[in-house]
Design brief:
two-stranded antiparallel ribbon, mainly alpha, 145 residues, 7% strand
Length: 145
């Protein structure tokens, strides 16, 4: 009779592949995207010159997710996805700043981050508006689809 057998370890060295996948598919941070939401940066991103190295020649871009798409129809489909809606929800609060970190460390009194109304970018690129700050977002009745 044989005793207990040793368990085999199959996936010992997978951490290298996980790290490689994680860095390859990295999205832009919320504070970077928040900077892109300003009117002058958004106009520059939405009205790009043709670039044949980017998907869709760089003409179909989602500002909130910082992604290029092949066509306008694919971009419209993306607006209805869970990933886009999650990113919109993350962008509602103002991004974390150095001043907020100093206040949290005791160098000033705490000020709660302001909530904003973020809507999906319009189809027509000339209609883009900056996010609006709202004191109490619970008082608004906004249908987010």
């Amino acid at each position: 009779m044989t005793g207990p057998q040793k368990k085999k370890k199959h996936h010992v060295g997978d951490t290298f592949y996980k790290r490689k996948y994680k860095t390859k598919h990295r999205a832009r941070d919320i504070d970077e995207v928040d900077n892109d939401l300003k009117k002058e940066n958004a106009d520059r991103l939405l009205k790009q010159a043709l670039d044949f190295d980017k998907p869709g020649e760089g003409q179909h871009y989602c500002i909130h997710c910082a992604r290029y798409f092949l066509s306008d129809q694919v971009l419209q489909d993306h607006f209805r996805t869970k990933l886009h809606k999650k990113r919109i929800k993350e962008l509602r609060l103002e991004p974390y700043t150095i001043e907020e970190a100093e206040r949290a460390a005791g160098f000033g009194s705490y000020i709660a981050p302001k909530e904003r109304v973020i809507v999906t970018q319009p189809i027509n690129k000339e209609e883009y508006k900056e996010p609006e700050e709202v004191a109490d977002i619970c008082s608004l009745n906004i249908d987010l689809q």
